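Practice record 12: protein with N-(aminocarbonyl)-beta-alanine.
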Amino acid sequence: MTYDLIFRNTAYGDVAVSGEKIAAVGEVNENAALEIDAAGKWLLPGGVDVHTHLGLTVGENSTCDGWEKGSAASLAGGTTTVIEHISFDPAGSCRAALRQAFVNASGRSCCDYGLHAVAQRVDEELLRTLPAAVREGIPSWKAYTTYSDPIFGEALEELFRAAKEAGAVVCVHCEDDELLRAARFKLEVQGRLSPEYHAAARPAYCEARSVREVLAAAHRAGDAAVHVVHLSTAAGLHEIRHAREGGQTNITVETCPQYLLLDESLYRRGTDQALRASMSPPLRTPDDAFALWQGLARGDIDMIATDHCAFSLSQKEQGWNDFRFTPNGAPGVEERLTLILSEGVNRGRITLQQAVDLLSANPARRFGLTHKGRIEPGCDADLVLFDPAALSRFPSPPLHGGAAYSLYSLLPLQGRVEKVWLRGRAVFDKGEVLAHPGQGKYVERYLRSDP
Ligand code: URP
Ligand code: ZN
């Protein structure tokens, strides 16, 4: 037999690709049309980012990259599959929100993608739609404890019960809305509304209290599957450890590169920097970042996503005099894999195997991407060739995404994504995205019973 592509000298031995799939791993004695010597490089499974907003609309603002540019940036960064957190529906219908998300993404994505449905309110429509969506391959639902439609208390518990019965996981944005309002009100009274106060308006204790209450609601619902998105604080991590020690097992947790590598001092480096870094949750202290790295190394945090949510500088500037008018969010999908391999693995904070698990295998497993995230026969041939020795920096402005800035442009990095394959086809090479919009496929997902 001959294969289409064989990688030689990888950590897996030889890796042979046939069509869209990985066909053999280990010792491969046959030949291929193309053979790549990976000696000195890292061959990795394509990245899986389970938290993007490539097509988000909030009020008057839509993210500036959209599916075409956002998914191209994703491939350039070595992420071959994203799971999108979809927009709210203006009338609050979860079914309409899903329908619109499909329309937005359809024919536009360069990378493979799935969608998380959104639970905007826990009503009869949601309770009917949730099990139907699970049967059709959408087994993950997002709930926000803050913003315009916060879900908490009994409604959240009811959502967890419905999700458990249907076999879904609920992804929760944990920031306690009551405490957030109080913190913001204090700043309003003091007239402290310039972007430098963004973090003060969303203190760490808001995350910790919300994590505790969200996990308690999932526990009361019979250890329902809960996924804590974008964990940013040591206090929040403490609550997660506490719940696990108490016997709650069906919890997974993600953090994001910005909470590992940046800190709240950015808000004091002028309005421009503060606006670029305005996101929720906000950047935290260096001690929080340290605790999150420890959480990754010890296995308390299961995956690293991005919460990629790119708004242009002019959109950001809506909040120049008042942070309440800034659309929150920052780009990250092009940077994630390189940042974690450079600042995590090459600096000895986590091992290469841990990075692969955090960036690819664990998110794929938790969210039902059965054929992705691993280099094994039968899996999709989503592959990244990474040069761990190349000294690099992200170009400013970035080459592929829609935002004209990166939060990491000055950071010296060790390592670079060299080449990327999506289902066996080269989609990024020599700095150029080779995939076209529509080449990425929508992926139906079905969950395993264990996290
Ligand atoms: O600031 C952020 N993260 N914006 C996107 C929406 C969200 O909260 O995830
Ligand atoms: Zn988000």
